[in-house]
Amino acid sequence: MAAAWIVVLVTLVLGLAVAGPVPTSKPTTTGKGCDIGRFKSLSPQELASFKKARDALEESLKLKNWSCSSPVFPGNWDLRLLQVRERPGALEAELALTLKVLEAAADTDSTLEVVLDQPLHTLQHILSQLQACIQAQPTAGPRTRGRLHHWLHRLQEAPEKESPGCLEASVTFNLFRLLIRDLTCVANGDLCLRTSTHPEST
Protein backbone atom coordinates (compact mmCIF):
# COMPACT_ATOMS: atom_id res chain seq x y z
CA MET A 1 0.00 0.00 0.00
CA ALA A 2 2.84 2.44 0.93
CA ALA A 3 4.58 1.71 -2.35
CA ALA A 4 1.38 2.50 -4.26
CA TRP A 5 1.03 5.90 -2.52
CA ILE A 6 4.67 6.71 -3.34
CA VAL A 7 4.01 5.98 -7.01
CA VAL A 8 0.95 8.28 -6.97
CA LEU A 9 2.84 11.12 -5.30
CA VAL A 10 5.77 10.87 -7.71
CA THR A 11 3.35 10.92 -10.65
CA LEU A 12 1.63 14.08 -9.30
CA VAL A 13 4.93 15.89 -8.71
CA LEU A 14 6.19 15.06 -12.19
CA GLY A 15 2.91 16.21 -13.68
CA LEU A 16 3.07 19.57 -11.92
CA ALA A 17 6.69 20.07 -12.97
CA VAL A 18 5.83 19.45 -16.61
CA ALA A 19 2.72 21.65 -16.53
CA GLY A 20 4.57 24.67 -15.13
CA PRO A 21 2.89 27.88 -13.99
CA VAL A 22 -0.33 29.06 -15.56
CA PRO A 23 0.44 31.98 -17.91
CA THR A 24 -1.11 35.35 -17.10
CA SER A 25 -1.50 38.55 -19.10
CA LYS A 26 1.55 40.11 -20.72
CA PRO A 27 3.56 42.25 -18.30
CA THR A 28 3.63 45.98 -18.80
CA THR A 29 7.35 46.03 -17.94
CA THR A 30 8.91 45.02 -21.24
CA GLY A 31 12.50 46.19 -21.09
CA LYS A 32 15.28 47.77 -19.07
CA GLY A 33 14.05 51.00 -17.52
CA CYS A 34 10.47 50.37 -18.70
CA ASP A 35 7.96 50.35 -15.87
CA ILE A 36 4.84 52.00 -17.26
CA GLY A 37 2.69 49.48 -15.35
CA ARG A 38 3.25 51.43 -12.15
CA PHE A 39 0.96 54.16 -13.51
CA LYS A 40 -2.21 52.05 -13.56
CA SER A 41 -3.42 54.49 -10.94
CA LEU A 42 -1.89 57.66 -9.55
CA SER A 43 -1.73 58.32 -5.82
CA PRO A 44 -4.41 60.47 -4.16
CA GLN A 45 -1.76 63.12 -3.52
CA GLU A 46 -0.77 63.23 -7.19
CA LEU A 47 -4.39 63.44 -8.33
CA ALA A 48 -5.02 66.23 -5.81
CA SER A 49 -2.10 68.25 -7.20
CA PHE A 50 -3.44 67.81 -10.73
CA LYS A 51 -6.93 68.87 -9.64
CA LYS A 52 -5.50 72.00 -8.02
CA ALA A 53 -3.58 72.75 -11.21
CA ARG A 54 -6.62 72.19 -13.40
CA ASP A 55 -8.75 74.49 -11.23
CA ALA A 56 -6.10 77.22 -11.44
CA LEU A 57 -5.85 76.82 -15.21
CA GLU A 58 -9.62 77.07 -15.59
CA GLU A 59 -9.67 80.26 -13.53
CA SER A 60 -6.89 81.68 -15.68
CA LEU A 61 -8.79 80.82 -18.87
CA LYS A 62 -11.79 82.85 -17.68
CA LEU A 63 -9.65 85.96 -18.02
CA LYS A 64 -8.54 85.15 -21.56
CA ASN A 65 -10.30 85.55 -24.88
CA TRP A 66 -9.61 82.27 -26.64
CA SER A 67 -11.15 80.14 -29.37
CA CYS A 68 -10.12 77.15 -31.49
CA SER A 69 -10.47 76.84 -35.25
CA SER A 70 -10.84 73.06 -34.79
CA PRO A 71 -10.60 70.68 -31.82
CA VAL A 72 -7.00 69.95 -30.85
CA PHE A 73 -7.98 66.49 -29.61
CA PRO A 74 -10.29 64.71 -32.08
CA GLY A 75 -13.80 64.10 -30.83
CA ASN A 76 -13.32 60.33 -31.02
CA TRP A 77 -9.98 60.36 -29.14
CA ASP A 78 -10.01 57.07 -27.25
CA LEU A 79 -6.89 54.90 -27.10
CA ARG A 80 -9.07 51.80 -26.79
CA LEU A 81 -9.93 52.27 -30.46
CA LEU A 82 -6.28 51.60 -31.36
CA GLN A 83 -4.27 48.41 -31.54
CA VAL A 84 -2.36 47.71 -28.30
CA ARG A 85 0.99 48.35 -30.04
CA GLU A 86 -0.24 51.77 -31.30
CA ARG A 87 -1.36 53.14 -27.94
CA PRO A 88 2.04 54.11 -26.43
CA GLY A 89 2.82 56.30 -29.46
CA ALA A 90 -0.52 58.10 -29.17
CA LEU A 91 -0.04 58.62 -25.43
CA GLU A 92 3.50 59.91 -26.01
CA ALA A 93 2.21 62.58 -28.41
CA GLU A 94 -0.60 63.49 -26.00
CA LEU A 95 1.85 63.84 -23.10
CA ALA A 96 4.41 65.79 -25.15
CA LEU A 97 1.86 68.38 -26.25
CA THR A 98 0.42 68.66 -22.74
CA LEU A 99 3.88 69.25 -21.27
CA LYS A 100 4.81 71.81 -23.92
CA VAL A 101 1.63 73.84 -23.38
CA LEU A 102 1.66 73.69 -19.57
CA GLU A 103 5.36 74.61 -19.41
CA ALA A 104 4.63 77.66 -21.58
CA ALA A 105 1.72 78.60 -19.29
CA ALA A 106 3.95 78.31 -16.22
CA ASP A 107 6.63 80.47 -17.86
CA THR A 108 4.21 83.33 -18.50
CA ASP A 109 2.23 83.28 -15.23
CA SER A 110 3.98 83.19 -11.84
CA THR A 111 0.82 81.94 -10.10
CA LEU A 112 0.51 79.01 -12.48
CA GLU A 113 4.23 78.35 -12.20
CA VAL A 114 3.84 77.47 -8.52
CA VAL A 115 0.74 75.30 -8.86
CA LEU A 116 2.04 73.49 -11.97
CA ASP A 117 5.45 72.65 -10.53
CA GLN A 118 4.60 69.21 -9.11
CA PRO A 119 2.23 68.15 -11.93
CA LEU A 120 4.89 69.03 -14.52
CA HIS A 121 7.47 66.90 -12.73
CA THR A 122 5.01 64.00 -12.61
CA LEU A 123 4.18 64.32 -16.32
CA GLN A 124 7.87 64.49 -17.22
CA HIS A 125 8.51 61.32 -15.23
CA ILE A 126 5.61 59.50 -16.88
CA LEU A 127 6.82 60.57 -20.33
CA SER A 128 10.37 59.36 -19.65
CA GLN A 129 9.07 55.97 -18.50
CA LEU A 130 6.81 55.71 -21.53
CA GLN A 131 9.65 56.55 -23.91
CA ALA A 132 11.80 53.85 -22.29
CA CYS A 133 9.02 51.35 -23.02
CA ILE A 134 8.67 52.53 -26.62
CA GLN A 135 12.43 52.23 -27.18
CA ALA A 136 12.33 48.70 -25.76
CA GLN A 137 9.78 47.61 -28.37
CA PRO A 138 10.89 46.03 -31.67
CA THR A 139 11.60 48.78 -34.19
CA ALA A 140 10.33 46.84 -37.20
CA GLY A 141 6.62 47.25 -37.87
CA PRO A 142 4.05 48.88 -40.11
CA ARG A 143 4.03 52.66 -40.47
CA THR A 144 1.33 54.59 -38.70
CA ARG A 145 -1.83 54.94 -40.76
CA GLY A 146 -5.55 55.39 -40.45
CA ARG A 147 -6.88 56.73 -37.18
CA LEU A 148 -3.50 56.90 -35.39
CA HIS A 149 -1.85 58.75 -38.28
CA HIS A 150 -4.70 61.26 -38.33
CA TRP A 151 -4.52 61.83 -34.58
CA LEU A 152 -0.73 62.28 -34.52
CA HIS A 153 -0.89 64.70 -37.43
CA ARG A 154 -3.57 66.75 -35.63
CA LEU A 155 -1.45 67.05 -32.47
CA GLN A 156 1.72 67.88 -34.41
CA GLU A 157 0.15 70.73 -36.35
CA ALA A 158 -1.88 72.18 -33.45
CA PRO A 159 0.91 74.44 -32.06
CA GLU A 160 1.25 76.07 -35.48
CA LYS A 161 -2.45 76.42 -36.25
CA GLU A 162 -3.99 77.29 -32.88
CA SER A 163 -3.50 80.17 -30.43
CA PRO A 164 -1.80 79.69 -27.04
CA GLY A 165 -5.19 80.20 -25.38
CA CYS A 166 -6.78 77.44 -27.45
CA LEU A 167 -3.91 75.06 -26.69
CA GLU A 168 -4.05 75.84 -22.97
CA ALA A 169 -7.81 75.27 -22.84
CA SER A 170 -7.55 72.06 -24.83
CA VAL A 171 -4.92 70.41 -22.63
CA THR A 172 -6.67 71.66 -19.47
CA PHE A 173 -9.99 70.07 -20.40
CA ASN A 174 -8.20 66.90 -21.59
CA LEU A 175 -5.95 66.57 -18.53
CA PHE A 176 -7.95 64.07 -16.51
CA ARG A 177 -8.86 62.02 -19.58
CA LEU A 178 -5.11 61.68 -20.14
CA LEU A 179 -4.39 60.73 -16.51
CA ILE A 180 -7.34 58.46 -15.75
CA ARG A 181 -8.33 56.87 -19.05
CA ASP A 182 -5.44 57.03 -21.51
CA LEU A 183 -2.52 56.49 -19.12
CA THR A 184 -4.40 53.70 -17.34
CA CYS A 185 -5.17 52.02 -20.65
CA VAL A 186 -1.52 51.96 -21.75
CA ALA A 187 -0.35 50.88 -18.27
CA ASN A 188 -2.79 47.95 -18.34
CA GLY A 189 -1.48 46.71 -21.69
CA ASP A 190 -3.51 43.81 -23.07
CA LEU A 191 -5.99 44.12 -20.21
CA CYS A 192 -7.30 47.37 -21.71
CA LEU A 193 -9.78 45.82 -24.09
CA ARG A 194 -10.24 47.31 -27.53
CA THR A 195 -13.63 48.87 -28.14
CA SER A 196 -15.73 48.28 -31.22
CA THR A 197 -14.58 50.25 -34.22
CA HIS A 198 -16.32 53.55 -34.92
CA PRO A 199 -16.21 55.63 -38.11
CA GLU A 200 -13.06 57.69 -38.66
CA SER A 201 -14.71 60.91 -37.49
CA THR A 202 -12.88 64.00 -36.33
From TrEMBL:
Keyword entries, A-Z: Antiviral defense, Cytokine, Secreted, Signal
InterPro entries: IFN-lambda_sf, INF_lambda
Protein known as: Interferon lambda 1
GO (cellular component) term, any one: interleukin-28 receptor complex
Keyword Signal: yes
Primary residence: secreted
Signal peptide: 1-19
Listed GO biological process terms: cell surface receptor signaling pathway via JAK-STAT; defense response to virus; innate immune response; negative regulation of cell population proliferation; negative regulation of DNA-templated transcription; negative regulation of interleukin-13 production; negative regulation of interleukin-5 production; negative regulation of memory T cell differentiation
